[in-house]
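Bug report (template v2)

What were you trying to do?
Predict the complex of my protein with flavin-adenine dinucleotide.

What happened?
Run completed; filing so the output is reviewed.

Input:
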Amino acid sequence: MTTAFFEYARQCVPEEFVLEQEPMAKHTTFRVGGAADCFITVQNEEQLAKLLVYITKVELPYFILGNGSNLLVGDKGYQGIVLHLAEDFAKISVEGTRITVGAGALLSQTAKMAKEASLTGMEFASGIPGTIGGALVMNAGAYDGEMKQIVRSVRVMDQNGEVLEFDNETMEFGYRTSAIKNRPYIVLDAVLELAEGDKTSITAKMEELAVQRREKQPLEFPSAGSTFKRPEGYFAGKLIMDAGMRGYRIGGAQVSEKHCGFIVNRGDATAADIAELIVEVQERVKARFDVKLEPEVITLGDF
Ligand SMILES: Cc1cc2nc3c(=O)[nH]c(=O)nc-3n(C[C@H](O)[C@H](O)[C@H](O)COP(=O)(O)OP(=O)(O)OC[C@H]3O[C@@H](n4cnc5c(N)ncnc54)[C@H](O)[C@@H]3O)c2cc1C
């Protein structure tokens, strides 16, 4: 990363929010990953626009980080700029049945606000450990719910700092994807449309789903949730289990004994261990069932 960029960034954002060589293991739920050359906590749209205009002009690589809960960063780190949206981007406000929520707000926090306002429709998202930004990009979903069902509109910023608004249709939500995945748009905030409900039933639903998660998922170990997308007509976890890989280990990375769809970090995994295990699982499932497993987890940096 150039000295000129660091100088510029420190003019846009308070100095303490511009970090050099920041370990990404601190910012991912897998708890692995080497250092990002530059890690900036961006507090508002004005700062973001200024940074983007410069980054685009000098063609520096950058990555938008949510809560790092669907992310595998290589052990050799990322030679680029990580932009993390906080402060203004984490605001949540409720008006009638609509919630306006910043990209950096957590889904759990937003679902809690919905519950407090007796609004139903977001219960499915209360246990997903991501931000609104990450959830919109991925069309996060669980237990028959997905972001697509509750999004009214999304405001995004393009690489030139221009703000655009997309409605639900323009977002082209699909299974764990949207129109902005792999496109250079940054989610700023979104308006969610929920329905009036009963606070007691909303609370009960959230608790029921939390119990299901605790029973079925290896929440006691760091992971990024389901490692693979669900292949059409199958369940990734079942294929992996039937391929005899329950508990299979490479270094500190392991196919969870509790839920084979999760690869977990048993404490001392490297990103390379996890990446190698992903490939091993893919090869064994392909050889045994002729099904191609596609990773849901996003990779970043050098392995
Ligand atoms: C224990 C556990 C359980 C999980 N359960 C579920 C589940 O039930 N359902 C489910 O769908 N997922 C689940 N996940 C995966 C993950 O939580 C979701 O994919 C979540 O939506 C990712 O959000 P994030 O903020 O962590 O995104 P990150 O992992 O930080 O990033 C994911 C992608 O979104 C992009 N991104 C993030 N913010 C923005 C933004 N503001 N603008 C543009 N791009 C952005 C990133 O660049 C990256 O490409 C689980 C993960 C864990 C660890």
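What did the reviewer find?
The radius of gyration is 20 Å. The chain has seven helices and 19 strands.
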